[in-house]
Design a protein that fits this description.
alpha/beta, 8-stranded mixed sheet, 8 strands, 298 residues
Length: 298
């Protein structure tokens, strides 16, 4: 397996670690932490798939998880340092699974530990369903649920929102949320506080630098054909790898009740709700998040 120092992960595009997908698109990734003996699955790297689709820098090193495991963090095609594909239909979620498989081959891993956050969990879930013998452990953080056909009712999100009515930012954020829900508003920025456990300066900075920039990639991700829930569920039924599903107590994107239902689709599941956390639990309480995730990966 190629090994790189963590400093190389923040170098310019031209010197970024990269590989070539099956269609010739150059895909970049970041490396955090030191490499261990990849011959042993319990010490091998963790391949991380971000959501968005957005530049993977918003994941950072997941609150310090890189002190326990080397992290290989992919920039999905058309985001971050990865190239724009010639075929826009390749932004589709099911086709991004092939890019993860190409990364595994590039790294020379027989099996890999795989982590997906938010929309990236849809990619990781489809990967596990298609290639169950190539995943040692699967961690889904604040997971999207479209890959398995789970819809999240608006009322479930509204209940979570109302649980935060004591926050100073609540009145304006809730008004914007109600308008969006009713189809009369589009101020998505105004509801940002609902996605963080604490709406402080660190959360504001994170939000400002983590928004998707490639609108075509966002639109293409869930294009027709991107999800085959029946086939994915069938594939997951044969999965024997341990699976962690972790979401925040206040995660509007991935409410605990919905993620609990998701967890029931796996044979060997650890389901965790991180207290007082939102959609980015490694920001809200890095120590708790790292302790939970590192223990699962150990």
């Amino acid at each position: 397996m190629p090994t790189y120092s963590a400093s190389e992960s923040s170098s310019p595009r031209s010197s970024s670690p990269a590989y070539v997908a099956s269609d010739g698109t150059r895909l970049a990734y970041r490396v955090y932490g030191e490499a261990h003996d990849e011959a042993h699955d319990d010490r091998g790297p963790v391949v991380c798939v971000p959501g968005g689709p957005a530049d993977s820098r918003y994941l950072g090193d997941l609150g310090g998880l890189s002190a326990h495991r080397q992290l290989i963090v992919l920039d999905t095609r058309g985001t971050g340092r990865s190239a724009l594909p010639e075929d826009p239909s390749s932004y589709r979620c099911d086709r991004l699974v092939d890019d993860v498989e190409a990364l595994r081959e590039h790294l020379g891993l027989r099996r890999m530990n795989l982590l997906g956050h938010s929309g990236g969990a849809n990619i990781a879930t489809q990967y596990a369903a298609r290639h169950p013998t190539r995943v040692s452990r699967l961690a889904l953080i604040g997971p999207g649920t479209r890959a398995v056909g789970l819809t999240i009712p608006g009322e479930m999100r509204r209940e979570l929102a109302l649980s935060r009515k004591g926050e100073p930012w609540f009145p304006s954020a809730f008004a914007a949320l109600e308008a969006i829900t009713e189809g009369t508003g589009t101020d998505w920025d105004a509801i940002s506080p609902f996605f963080y456990g604490r709406w402080d300066s660190a959360a504001r900075q994170h939000h400002a630098t983590s928004q998707p920039e490639n609108k075509e990639a966002v639109a293409g991700f869930a294009a027709e054909g991107a999800f085959d829930a029946e086939a994915t569920r069938a594939g997951l039924a044969s999965c024997e790898m341990p699976v962690l599903l972790l979401t925040g107590e206040f995660d509007m994107n991935s409410p605990p009740r919905a993620v609990a239902e998701f967890a029931e689709l796996f044979r060997d599941t650890t389901f965790v709700v991180q207290p007082a956390a939102g959609h980015y639990p490694w920001l809200d309480d890095a120590e708790r998040f790292v302790a939970t995730t590192a223990a699962f990966l150990k």
